Amino acid sequence: xxxxxxxxxxxxxxxxxxxxxxxxxxxxxxxxxxVACAACFATLDMAERQSHSPEPTxxxxxxxxxACCLAGGIWAMHFISMLAFQAPVEVHYDVSxxxxxxxxxxxxxxxxxxxxxRTQMRMHHFVQSAVLIGLGIILMxxxxxxxxxxxxxxxxxxxxxxxxxxxALLTSLAALCLARYFRNGSGTLxxxxxxxxxxxxxxGIVATHFTAMSAxxxxxxxxxxxxxxxxxxxxxxxxxxxxITLLISGASISAALADKKLQSxxxxxxxxxxxxxxLDQARASLQQAxxxxxxxxxxxxxxxxxxxxxxxxxxxxxxxxxxxxxxDIDHFKRINDSLGHDAGDELLKVIANHIKAAxxxxxxxxxxxxxxxxIVTSLNNRDEARHLAQRIMQRxxxxxxxxxxxxxxxxxxxxxxxxxxGTSVEELLKHADLALYQSKDNGRNSxxxxxxxxxxxxxxxxxxxxxxxxxLLEERGLCVHYQPIFDMRSGQLAKxxxxxxxxxxxxxxxxxxxxxxxxxxxxxxxxxxxWVLRHACNDLAxxxxxxxxxxxxxxxxxxxxLSHDELPNEVEKALFHAGLCARQLELEVTENALxxxxxxxxxxxxxxxxxxxxxxxxxxxxxxxxxxxxxxLPLDVLKIDRTFLQDVPGSQKDREIVQAIIVMAHTLHLxxxxxxxETTEQQAxxxxxxxxxxxxxxxxxxxxxxxxxPLLERLQRQDGVLNPCYGKVLPGSPDLFAGNPGYRAGAxxxxxxx
Length: 754
Fold this sequence. Notes:
By secondary structure, the chain is an alpha/beta fold. 54% of the residues lie in helices and 16% in strands. It contains 22 helices and 26 strands. The strands form 6 sheets. An 8-stranded mixed β-barrel has the order 17-18-20-21-22-23-24-25, surrounded by 4 helices. Strands 1-2-8-9-3 form a 5-stranded mixed beta sheet. It has a 5-stranded mixed beta sheet with strand order 11-12-10-15-16, sandwiched between helices. A hairpin with a 3-residue loop joins strand 18 and strand 19. The model is unreliable at 726-754 (pLDDT under 50). Residues 461-716 form the EAL domain.
């Protein structure tokens, strides 16, 4: 194909002389690259100024200046590179075509700057513009090459010709992306990256040119005389063009820098003006933020302490009475866990409005954080405080629409009275907090006044905490009792449940309800659970050495321990040191212990189960949405809570619940253990309805290891017959901890969450 005298996509002729002694002057090639780098850097600066110019006139000026810099740079690079071309023929340049190539370069550069004006540019916009710009660069190059008059015909190799076109397209796309990216930014790293981008863009432009030059072959027709070069002023002309182009690029860069500094100063002045205008607002908002809760607009703890101290001083001077109320929303954690923190925040706003509606305008209402609120009110007698607390509790029971659900919340309240319960801010708050925890312990949705017994209980709890810490550290006083669990079908002992006890030197044998809560509140529960785990494994290994190890040992796991990432490693370590197989250990977790991060819990339980350890869910039916998550958990055993069995077989509802649980568990391929079996009627009922395992005082009570061997010997003599140990257990149960729902818990009575 012939175009402007150029033979594109054409084979070499059969006749003619090929000019082979062609080369490029290295200095001019380097100068061309340097000119291209300067032009690219100037163009990036112009694109940046273009995007930061708010006035349309300035925007257009930077647009045109950028187009001139880019066009001048590309054209000068091309012309200097052509001047660098040396061949043993006489070389002239057609002025009209040379000027036309410059105009094409200007058009390409304007198109590039125009493309950058778009507010939003998607990938297809970049590609479209890059194709047009790349084609323009190729057109400029070959128009410029057509201006080269040597007496020879230019033939172009197809492969390299297409390669130069591809390089031009990629370079155009990269240039657009880089110019778009570098419109915003500052700092040394940003400037260094801009330098690097300029070098890369210039390299692409130079590569386009020289790839096309490599595709060119000069062929002198056979009937044309060879004209040798008469003189060479290429170096001087290249230096002149390069100097002019660099001067223009340098002036443009200087203008861009000056504009940037001027704009920065103007921006700084505007910022100072705005900051000065905002300073007064900030002073007011700081006062608001320092003393008020952002979510509920109630007084926060800092503001409360200040106002409360002032009011307390007034009441001390007037010798009048004052009440301090601590409020805590019952089971608030469930809302955050199930509906998310946004729903929890909305609920707090509604509750704050309920509290403000139930109190008087002169009462001080504050939010301390989380779901804790505090009220300070003046009064004449304790009954006024009680009536106010009851109004708040009644207001709380109004239905609340939240997250597409209609729910009713309750609150627990603790009250302290000035001056009866304290005369300082700290003392009154501490005593109200103690009364609040008493309300929680009483089952929530209640109010309690502070009394001296609460202070005594708090002191005793602190003492027990210190003594429990020492008992764990010195392994003194703590012990493990074991209660047998029987296989209903074979009548044989199948498991031993490990149950922690504390032989206190002053208080005697303490059940878990006396110290598990203390251990959980003070970070001791994990150490306690792991202590029980290690001792249970060692005790089972001890029994094996005497020929009594053909059963499992089950160990309870608290909610805190269940969130301990090292639990699988600790289980594996305990089994290894005791020399037990993993199948001889079973971990029990309560429903309440599973109500945290369910996915994390599932992953942790899967790691434990992968060791070969069986998993059991304890106290089933007493927790939350059991059926919703039961299928997701890697469980082997389900334990029916003793509360469902107490009135069996007398209560029809309890009978039906137990039957349903057994059927459901078997459908899910879970074995069933029934706890709290205390009568022969209960035993017969469970046998009739297919319960797999039995546990209770009818068949065996928890005993220490020292008393376990005689029990095991007696069980062996029964030869598979389940005989009651104590006969029919009447309402006066032999269970020392029957009043406590978690009496069998090892180190794992799950604390009730907020």
